[in-house]
Write the structure tokens for this entry.
Amino acid sequence: MKHTLSIDSPLGVWTLHATPTHLTQLTLNATETPAGHSATTPAHLPDAADRLAAFLAGQPTHFDDLPLAPAGTPFQQHVWAALRTIPFGQTRTYSQLARQLGQPKAARAVGAANARNPLPILIPCHRVIAASGKLQGFALGLHLKQKLLDLEQAQAQARQYRLLPV
């Protein structure tokens, strides 16, 4: 059985898709109306929705321990796992990820896998940029990619200021 839960945010209406045990997809639909959850909704779904809403509202949050099960090829799974190692508030290039995967000539293949990520934000494909440092390729649009990176930068800076001794 599949479950969905939608949340409204300043960046649109996001819908989480899940099985009883894992999150499988995150979609953006600006015209959709957010739907609540029912008594049969698995516990991980509202938790993920709450975290996503907090992140999109600019509040510090993390997604590291969410149960994710995106459908993809073994290579895509490998790339998506590497994406989850990019630290919050930082970026990597497609070439850097290819080298990290031990396939230095696979930058384009990494980009293709990145574009097919069914769980954007939760698997942070928005943190990958071109070798020139410019934004490149994001299935949901470069404007949204920039907003997500800006959100993370603001949160990372706020964390840094809170950690500094007085």
Observations:
- The beta strands are 3-9, 12-18, 23-28, 92-93, 128-129.
